Amino acid sequence: MLTSSRSLTTETQGSQLHRQDDRWVRGTHTMYFASLAMNWAGSTIPNSLPGNFTTLTLKAPVGAVGGIIPWNAPLISMWWIMGGVLATGCTGVIKTAEDASLTTLRTAELLVEAGVPPGVINVVTGLGAEAGAALAAHMDVDRVAFTGSTITGREIIKASASNMKRI
């Protein structure tokens, strides 16, 4: 998997093989997200409210997560989003950069082959102004994760305001 994913990334976005970040394959990111999946307990944390108040945290799935990732690091960007999605029991839709989508598409296929149920990880391709905007505005998407320019980020915030998504 390492060789084919790295080769696809090189072919689609031009990155040199030796410059690609393969820490997720070695287990660094995988172990981090696996530890999140094992730690579902909330906690009681101190607060500065006057009176007798207790502050509790609760870890719960947020629902469908939309992820919009850049062209220059599709594999690691996908994993940063989908690792958390899988660890927290959510579903995810990744919108790839229109000019570097093969690595993301192949990784999603490999996740299904590895046992992730179909429909848990989804990939959408297309232009950002169309596919990315539709993902950010979709009423069934509860959270949007994004890496990219400030200008695009502002557009995502505007599009996601329809149901007050977490960004």
The side-by-side strand order for the widest beta sheet comes to 5-4-3-6
Number-wise, the strands total 6
Low-confidence stretches: none
| Percent strand | 5-15%
> What is Rg?
18 Å
Measure the end-to-end span.
31 Å
How would you describe what is shown here?
With 167 residues, this protein is an alpha/beta fold. The chain is 44% helix and 13% strand. The protein is built from seven helices and six strands; from the N terminus they run H-H-H-E-E-E-H-E-H-E-H-E-H. The protein has a four-stranded parallel beta sheet with strand order 5-4-3-6, sandwiched between helices. A two-stranded antiparallel sheet has the order 1-2. The chain is globular. The mean pLDDT is 82.
Give descriptors for this structure:
6 strands, 7 helices, 13% strand, alpha/beta, single chain, 44% helix, four-stranded parallel sheet
Question: What's this, in brief?
Answer:
The protein is of the alpha/beta class and 167 residues long.
Write the layout of secondary structure elements.
Layout: H1 2-13, H2 23-26, H3 28-38, E1 44-45, E2 55-56, E3 64-68, H4 74-87, E4 91-95, H5 102-113, E5 121-124, H6 128-137, E6 143-146, H7 150-160
Parallel strand pairs: 3-4, 3-6, 4-5
Antiparallel strand pairs: 1-2
